[in-house]
Amino acid sequence: IFLMSRPLSLQRARLSLFRHKQRVLVASICLVVAIIWITTSLRSHDYAEPPAHLTRDVSFKIVEYYNRPERDFEGIVSIVTQVSPNRLDRIVDMAKEWQGPMSVAVYIHDNKDLKDVDLYLKTHPPLRDVGVHLLYYNKTRYPVNDLRNLAVRMATTPWVAMLDADFFPSEKMNKYLNDVVRSSGPKSAFILPAFNSDLATEDMPRTKQDIMIALMEGKASIVNEKLCYKCHNVTNYRKWYFTDKPFQIYYRWVYEPFLVYNREAAPPFPTIFKGYGFDKNTWVYSLAILGWEFFVVPDAFITHRPHVRNNWDGKGLDDQLMEALALVCEVIPNVKRENGRSPQQSAFGEPVYTQGEGKEICAKDTKWF
């Protein structure tokens, strides 16, 4: 009996050992998956937090003139913009068409971003004529206004055209804008009508006639016309279509045009805003409070090209927008106080609140949009 049972015991031992190895293997796999999940979660959490209102005093590592332009351009107007390395191709197209001084702030998140910048500088000669400056990630959402301020500060001309990276300038816009601003006062800002188009770069509208035809054919539209109508309707596109002279418009809240302005006379962009929402609207509001005048130029425009929507390192854009609105409820009253105006009086159609209503009501009021 002992001899007969021995093989059976050995089989059981082997089976027990096999099951033990299985359990160890499963546990090891679970551990690896858990480590990957935790690491990814922490990285995502690190990108998204802390919220914008807790990062107002964050400083960033900056590298000025990572690329110093090889060409010295004439003129008193520079394009200034900010960009992530994955959209440097748009800067190349912009530089080709503009043919003038440019100051670009590039957001560097990691070593791969830096390698991408190096590769573009090596393989795209037009980029080597651009002043490229770097701003490094420091645990905030996309610091759009810190980047804008860097680009403006490093511009080599007194006047700047503040564009987003995906815009394409119209034909001969460089010479035209230099002629426009040359005899203008320091508190005059010139508005570039802005459009959207899905056309390829080589087919982009370059003249006023081109953009008019593209609009009639449904190949172009007013920028953000559906997303935020009030953000650009003050431009008065209907008048622009049929005029050959600059005309003045009067600012209303939430308007956020793309401006050509004297950088030496303008305040910096409010760096309290990180991520998406109200980062430019509040700055234009401050210009209006300071008494700036706004004029639409008749013979220059910019066209926005589509791109993959960026989540701006954080929550969904709707959530970020509402968090930014809470900052608006702080910034706008402060701008008024600093310029001798009552926070309880509307200056340009923006909502106002009594002291008893508080920020909570302000930060949920859709009248801001």
How would you characterize the overall build of this protein?
The protein is of the alpha/beta class and 369 residues long. Helices cover 38% and strands 16% of the residues. It contains ten helices and 13 strands. The chain has helices at residues 2-48, 88-98, 111-123, 144-153, 173-181, 208-216, 237-241, 281-289, 317-338, 358-362, and strands at 62-67, 77-83, 102-108, 131-136, 159-162, 167-169, 188-192, 194-197, 220-222, 247-249, 258-262, 293-296, 302-304. A nine-stranded mixed sheet has the order 1-4-3-2-5-11-7-12-10, with helices on both faces. It has a four-stranded mixed sheet with strand order 6-13-8-9. Strand 3 (102-108), helix 3 and strand 4 form a beta-alpha-beta unit. Helix 8 (281-289) runs parallel beside helix 9. The longest helix has 47 residues, at 2-48. The radius of gyration is 27 Å and the shape is globular.
Largest sheet: 9 strands, mixed
How much of the sequence lies in strands comes to 15-25%
Structural class call reads alpha/beta
Question: Which segments are poorly predicted (pLDDT under 50) over 5 or more consecutive residues?
Answer: 1-5, 35-50
Calculate Rg over CA atoms.
27 Å
The largest sheet has its strands arranged as 1-4-3-2-5-11-7-12-10
Q: Report helical residue fraction.
A: 25-40%
The helix count comes to 10
Average pLDDT, all residues: 87
Would you report the number of β strands?
13
**H-E order:** HEEHEHEHEEHEEHEHEEHEEHH
Spatial gap, N to C terminus: 89 Å
Cα shape: globular
Give the oligomer, counting copies of the same chain as homo and different chains as hetero: single chain
